[in-house]
Design a protein that fits this description.
With 66 residues, the chain is an alpha+beta fold. The protein contains 3 helices and 3 strands.
């Protein structure tokens, strides 16, 4: 039953190295590590809108502007 041949799993692991570093890190094309959460704050800064004051909303509603 036991042979000296390597197992299928060990052959697959040797032929296809992992493209990630674990815990969500991804290897980029230039070999540097990248994590999606590290640039998330930049993304959220672009998505946040400035709050419009109640007075300005009231004036816009009275003037018929959006």
């Amino acid at each position: 039953m036991l042979t000296n041949e390597p197992s299928l799993a060990s052959l697959l692991k040797k032929r296809s190295p992992s493209m990630h570093y674990g815990h969500g890190w991804i290897m980029g094309r230039d070999g540097q590590r990248w994590h999606p959460c590290s640039s998330q704050s930049e993304l959220l800064n672009g998505l946040t809108a400035k709050k419009v004051s109640a007075v300005k909303r009231l004036l816009n509603a009275l003037m018929g502007e959006k």
